[in-house]
Amino acid sequence: MKTKLSSEFWFTLTLFSLIGQIAWVVENMYLNVFIYKMFRASAADISAMVAASAVAATLTTVLIGALSDKLGRRKVFMCGGYILWGLSILGFILLREDIIGALFPMAASVSAVGVTLVIVLDCVMTFFGSTANDAAFNAWLTDSTDATNRGAAEGINAMMPLVAILAVFGGFMAFDLDLPGSWSAIFAIIGGVVLAVGIIGCFVIKEPPLTPAADGYLRTVVHGFLPSTVRANAPLYLYLIAFVVFNISIQIFMPYLILYYEVSLGMENYVFIMAPAILLASAVTALWGKVYDRRGFAPSMWCALIWLITGYVLLYCFRSTLFVFIGSLLMMCGYLAGMAVFGAKIRDLTPVGKAGMFQGVRICAQVLLPGVIGPFIGKTVLAGAEMIVNSDGTESFIPNANIFSAALAAAVLLCILLPVFGKFSRRQG
Fold first, then answer.
1. Under 8 Å CB-to-CB from 300, ≥6 apart: which residues?
2. CA-to-CA separations, 148 to 101, 154, 350, in angstroms, rounded
3. pLDDT(428) > 70
4. Does residue 59 sit within a domain?
5. What mean pLDDT value characterizes the chain?
6. How far is it, in rounded angstroms, from Cα 77 to Cα 86?
7. Is 39 domain-assigned?
8. H or E stretch at 396
9. Is the terminal CB of the chain with fewer CB neighbours within 10 Å at N or C?
């Protein structure tokens, strides 16, 4: 019988997932635009920022996830993390060429200093964000659900990135992203909202019943990486490997997606084109977790992969508005539905009472390895990209459709691996 989840749970899930994803969208999709427009960042700079953030997210999740298990607490890390996350986002208001020039008058290049400061502050922001979201919130979600309702909860959780993209796209329409003042206003709004959610969480979050881990802290930190743990949970680690490949496919193109729409395709009003695609993909994703609950991993995952691959093909082959819309819709449906299916499967295979310890392993599969490998592949395929000369004489690269062909190759590799991993997992079961 399906376990019914309370209205308080759904409110907390929706609020923390949505606002957390809005903050991640600003970091993962628009911080690249910020560093590109304000400091003329190169593809290598963007790749370095994504990789550094991925490392910071992974280390944070490993250490804080284990600490939350050791203490048997999730709420304090969620609320405190969101409050500090919001404050760190507000810090980006200070990253402007006029302020940096005044603080570093001897710098040979204000832009180079700006790029460095953005990467450093991004890592600081990631530390607090991963504490709040990757470590504590995800462990809380696993603790608060079971095998009868996890797909439905994960469907809501997985759709939030698309809802967040829509909210950010819509909100950013009011700003001229070529102006430093616009970015200051954006960081002020996002930072303030994230901070406010952390305060609200102090009153609404229900701490799940959790027994503090008996092992010492260091043992708790490394638990998910021990060979004995891998042998005891082989199916979980096989699906995590598949999750790595899936996320590498996404990270090959995602850091450059907005720049591709705006710079390469010249879609100044890409928000109006993307909004319907995002709404439709969000509806599909919200329902897809329930498909997982009813049908299981394989049928729901293969549908997601077909959508993803078809979207890549269309985005690679066509530049017209109609086909870009259809390709983006299918790509987004495949991406978020796949995230929901993988997320639910990994939570189902996570040992009970050890969700915090395994968040570090999960973040390696979702963020660290894809965040290092994916953007590196993207940077490599863009090595010969066309360059444009800016008004100040500097040059910027123009992302091209090769990012989608490389992402397609990773998705095809996943199609080869999944049947092999599925057969082995069934044998282990």
1. 288, 291, 292, 337, 341
2. 57, 12, 15
3. no
4. yes
5. 88
6. 14
7. yes
8. strand 395-397
9. N
Three-state SS at 206: coil
Helices and strands, number each (H, E), in the chain? 19, 2
What is the three-state SS of 321-367? HHHHHHHHHHHHHHHHHHHHHHHHHHHHHCCCCCHHHHHHHHHHHHH
The total number of structural domains in the chain stands at: 1
Q: 352: Cβ–Cβ under 8 A, 6 or more apart, which residues?
A: none
Report d(CA 360, CA 354) in Å as an integer.
11
Q: In which residue are the tokens 């690249």 written?
A: 32
CB atoms under 10 Å from CB of 321, counted, come to: 14
Query: Which residue is associated with the tokens 């507000």?
Result: 90
Q: Are 122 and 371 in contact (CB under 8 A)?
A: no
3-state SS assignment for residue 395: strand
Residue 110 has pLDDT above 90, yes or no: no
At 288-339, the pLDDT tens digits run: 877 887 888 889 999 999 999 999 999 999 999 899 999 999 998 999 889 8
Nearest-angstrom CA–CA distance, 134 and 356: 10
Of 422, 369, 423, 424, nearest to 246 by C-alpha is: 369
- Calculate the alpha carbon distances from 290 to 17, 141, 251, 294, 366 in Å: 18, 16, 26, 6, 22
The DSSP H or E segment spanning 389 is: strand 387-389
CB atoms within 10 A of CB 105: 8
Kindly provide the residue ranges of all beta strands, DSSP E only, lying in 260-369, ordered along the sequence.
Answer: none
How many other C-beta atoms are found inside a 10 Å radius of the C-beta of residue 400?
Answer: 18
Rounded Cα distance, 178 and 183, in Å: 9
Integer Cα distance of 82 and 80 in angstroms: 6
Is position 2 within any domain?
no
Note whether 129 and 26 are within 8 A (CB): no
Contacts of 340 by beta carbon, 8 Å cutoff, 6+ apart: 151, 154, 155, 157, 158, 159, 285, 288, 289, 292
CATH code of the domain covering residue 287: 1.20.1250.20
- Give the range of the structural domain holding residue 219, as residue numbers without chain letter: 7-428
